[in-house]
Amino acid sequence: DIVMTQSPNSLGLSLGERATINCKSSQSIFDTSTNENHLTWYQKKPGQPPKVLIYWASTRESGVPDRFRGSGSGTDFTLTISSLQAEDVAVYYCQQSYSSPLTFGGGTKVEIK
Amino acid sequence: QVHLQQSGPGLVKPSQTLSLTCAISGDSVSANYVTWDWVRQSPSGGLEWLGRAYYRSRWYSDYAESVKSRIIINPDTSKNQFSLLLSSVTPEDTAVYFCARSYGWRSDYWGQGTLVTVSS
């Protein structure tokens, strides 16, 4: 199985600050047949299902604010929130869909300091 | 617009079988461009992908190693839904269970979630 490791476990920032969340896969999740990294970022709030923010490592889902940006390739990926808003308080998960079983990272909790 | 509606009991006794159903509207369980997945979130908070079923000229399924010996995900084409069966449950299977549609390698539509507690 591909292991997804996220860091940090939690992040306390002020409104307007930049949040950076890292995700590392135990092997490359770059698909040479599609030229895409099979890495998705989800936002999870209490009482709600997960919501897709970014897929293929850097493609923003329709309707997601442009302060959310995904980057990286191969085994190392980053989710950046350029200017933290109150509504961004949530737990963020990366997931690989390169090979079965699909696996999630452990999550990063983002809070307002 | 795709909508997934989950149903099933919120309380299951240890050693019994957990059974949840996800009814699909706005898409077909037999569509050959999507997969139909189950994911759970334990009380400790992490998300765990459990497995999926999908149709590519015939039906396929694959499962997480942690539950592989106990899980079946069944499509039901007559009702346009899919179900999760998890046998021999223990308190460690207590979690919120979600069904989801996956398209383009991401889960873009989700059910509302069902809290299942395993307790006698």
Structure description:
- The complex is a heterodimer of chains A (113) and B (120).
- Chain A is mostly beta strands and 113 residues long.
- Chain A contains no helices and 13 strands.
- Chain A has strands at 4-7, 10-13, 19-25, 30-31, 36-37, 39-44, 51-55, 59-60, 68-73, 76-81, 90-96, 103-104, 108-112.
- In chain A, strands 2, 6, 7, 8, 11, 12 and 13 form a 7-stranded mixed β-sheet that branches. Chain A has a 4-stranded antiparallel β-sheet with strand order 1-3-10-9, with no helix packed on it. Chain A has a two-stranded antiparallel sheet with strand order 4-5.
- Chain B is mostly beta strands.
- Chain B is built from no helices and 11 strands.
- Chain A binds chain B through residues 1, 36, 38, 40, 42, 44, 47-50, 52, 55-56, 61, 91, 93, 95, 97, 100-104, 106-107, and chain B through 37, 39, 41, 45-49, 51-52, 62-65, 98, 100, 102, 104-108, 110-113.
Q: How many angstroms does the end-to-end distance of chain A come to?
A: 36 Å
Which protein chains make the most extensive interface, counting residues with beta carbons within 8 Å of the other chain's beta carbons?
A-B, 25 and 26 residues
Sheet bearing the most strands of chain A, described?
A: 7 strands, mixed
- Beta-strand residue fraction of chain B: over 45%
Q: What are the low-pLDDT stretches of chain A, counting only 5+ consecutive residues below 50?
A: none
Number of strands of chain A: 13
Largest sheet of chain B: 7 strands, mixed
Instruction: State the helical fraction of chain B.
Output: under 10%
Low-pLDDT residue intervals, each spanning 5 or more residues of chain B: none
What's the shape of chain A?
A: globular
Class by helix and strand content of chain A?
A: mainly beta
Oligomer: heterodimer
User: Count of helices of chain A?
Assistant: 0
Order of helices and strands of chain A: EEEEEEEEEEEEE
Q: How many runs of DSSP E, i.e. beta strands of chain B?
A: 11
Taking all Cα atoms into account, the compactness measure Rg of chain B is 14 Å
